[in-house]
Amino acid sequence: MASSSTEAALHAAYASRGGSQAVFAPKVADYVASRPDYPQALFDRLTELGALSPNARIADIGAGTGLLTAGLLARGHEVVAVEPNDAMRAAADALLHDRPGYRSVAGSAETTNLPPASVDLVTAAQAFHWFVVDRTRAEFLRVLATNGQVALIWNDRLPDDPLQRAIAVLFRRHGGSERAALTAHEERLGVQDFYGRGRIEQIDVPHEQRLGRAGFAALLFSRSYMPPRASAAGTTAEHDVDALFDAHAEDGAVVVRYRTIAYVGRPVI
Prior knowledge:
Elements: H1 2-14, H2 20-23, H3 28-34, H4 40-48, E1 57-61, H5 67-74, E2 78-82, H6 86-96, E3 102-105, E4 119-125, H7 133-143, E5 144-157, H8 162-185, H9 189-195, E6 201-211, H10 213-221, H11 232-248, E7 254-265
Parallel strand pairs: 1-2, 1-4, 2-3, 4-5
Antiparallel strand pairs: 5-7, 6-7
């Protein structure tokens, strides 16, 4: 299947850097400083669709530094953040440890380390492309309670936005084979494979963030395929990032626009 071949190519592209569990460790500071959160309209629509009931127990898989987890906690939900990368999980713990309803677990999409039938909603934000689809589906169905659902979520860049087009050019210049593999897999052919015969509802709502120079640089360097800042390639990329900011900034900031997309349903094999 096409999704299986792009999945294999993606994991092979990152193998030399320790795979998906290791690649983000040096990028945690940039991630915390710059990655966008998720709009309230997303949570409202999840509630309207019946996926996010008032007393829902939630597992946020590939939780990273806790961006989606924080939004769910703010609405009073009980959330366990499941994250395989120690540095990312530690950042989430530092941010959220004192929030009621929060806990974290070292685990992955394929092995969450959660009890059977223990959650009502599984979420995965900006993470599904790293998952092994068949094993992930089986694991999510194991941990979901009866009638529990899965929400796969992305903040998508807008291809027709001038700033986003310029960012895409920069990523092509500096992202190399890793970016090419990731882009091919982000076609999301695996989403339909994951849900199988299950009914899928789609959410599509606008979102944006305003960033100064440092935040904008952090956003771009937080990408898994961007070179380390301290490397020669990173120094070259940083010059290009600065030039890009100067070309698009107004009043000392750029507005980065997105569409927040979610696929919601229960997988049926």
